[in-house]
Amino acid sequence: MALVDFQHGVDAGCDVIEVVDVATRRQVLFVPEVGCSVDACLIRCERATDLVVNEYGSVSWIVTRSSFHNSPASIEVHMVSISGASDLLDSSLSIVLGSLQLAPGGDITWFDRGQAMYAKLVGPTHP
Fold first, then answer.
1. Per residue in 73-86, pLDDT tens?
2. Which terminal CB of the chain, N or C, has fewer other CB atoms within 10 Å?
3. Nearest to 108 by CA among 96, 122, 99, 118
4. Would you say residue 127 lies in a domain?
5. Burial of 109 per CB tally in 10 Å (0-12, 13-18, 19+)
6. What is the pTM of this model?
């Protein structure tokens, strides 16, 4: 199971991703600061969405970054493997929010510029 949680301070906070092995109730992956916001999104707003997790515990998500007027300044697709290796897979204002999915065989898919994009969401033995 994977979830996005929000850790906050007085006037800022960050989304974090936690992956938990439900059978053992053990945290297998923690990804800090996947998106951070300042002053309740009045100055900077970053939000993690579209979280997917594979059978090994590797995760992928989309993060949106917007500024003062809340119009997206960037949209990115990220991945972190269970080994902790991370990768920025795509960055474009044309990425479709809500389109990230886990496909058969361990691939992830999303839409950008009207086209389906693919990447391998790796397991524990891959870098």
1. 789 999 998 888 88
2. C
3. 118
4. no
5. middle
6. 0.81
